[in-house]
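Look at a sample.

——
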Amino acid sequence: MTSPESHDSVSQELYAKHEKIYPREVHGIFARLRVAGVLVLLGLYYGVPWLRWDDRQAVLLDLPARQFHIFGLTFFPQDFFYLAILLIIAALALFFFTTLAGRLWCGFACPQTVWTEVFLWIERKIEGDRARQMKLDKAPWTTRKRLIKTSKHAIWILFSFWTGYTFVGYFTPITELGVKIGSLQTGPWETFWVLFYGAATYLNAGWMREQVCIYMCPYARFQSAMFDENTLTISYDELRGDPRGSRKRGAEPKSLGLGDCIDCTLCVQVCPTGIDIRDGLQYQCIGCAACVDVCDQVMEKMDYPKGLIRYTTENALEGKKTRLLRPRIFVYIVLLAALSTALLHSLLTRIPLELDVIRDRNALYRELADGKIENVYTLKIVNKDTRAHHYLVQVSGLPAIGFAKENKMVAVDAGEVANVPVRVQVPKDQLQKTGNNIEFLVRAKGERKLSATENGRFIGPLKKY
């Protein structure tokens, strides 16, 4: 039977209270890359909605109008397959980079990492470095402490609100949205998403931080399935570093019976998820390489070679040959190149017009009094342009083929779908077989390049042989 004492110890182990992590600020090549990534990505996020293209916002996902403007291109719900291809490319790119060099996405480009970096920067500017933050949190609540904490959270909230405002600005023209917010006239959905996205940014980047990466993100759980012994990961060189121990600067580690690691724990202090990389590869590691930067600085001060903690492979650590370019890397490269090329070609040759032919299933054909055979079709004409067009509908493929009415002209508004019923007639004596291939052509008036074709099937009487 389990004693109350052992029960309490197990409960404490399973449900331990979360302890705040205070990442130490670090400088180095990877830190500079991370800052550059933050500046570029957030610059794009906050700046793109303010760009103009002709007389509209350059990037605007207009859901009510079912039009999605991306600079000079306008997409409609019928173009959903472009989004599907983009998602497939993004997934393959994630698999490729993970197989090649671990969690590069998490450490340098993930929104959680990017916004957390900004919140940490704000926190350091207001509360000070790691030691000052820890001292402040342990101090009693004084007027000074309340002022500092209030200032920090006020700036966090304002930044989060601006993030939510920018997010909604991709769906509602951002200048128009600003006027609505200033006059308190935003709609219910606009209000909800500004507050929701702002609150999510504040909670995730300000409060939860590493908990999102460790507990909420599914990528942390299945990333190891894409790793192998040739994947570049951030690793501690145990053979070189152990046994660990402190010593004077410039001391020869072998003469002391020690490895190169001086056990300064700076690699732990700079880790945003609070792990000790010296314990080996862990799913909590987001691959930010902060430990690499700080360890290299320590090694430089100790006059030891850099790279005690570095990007390396399992094979390299064991003294085996590393193969970065391996079969599945080539498979990812080929797939990414093929899909990206196909997407680019499709966009460059895209015609903002779509035609679909639906044959009437109620009757195979009708035999008219004047000796003609008639088939009925419905043409679905999708105008995917930003302006209305008049389309001329034509049919060909059989001698003397034509519509019941000559030169069918159809007007279709921008982004609209027109269902056009047509009756196609062919003289009976011109039909050599029961099933015949025909072609429908739709062309915009005055724009010969804006056209679309679609094949159809014309059915006549059964031939007697």
Observations:
- Residues 353-459 form a domain with the Immunoglobulin-like fold (CATH 2.60.40.10).
- The chain has a mean pLDDT of 91.
- The CA atoms of residues 169 and 177 lie 7 Å apart.
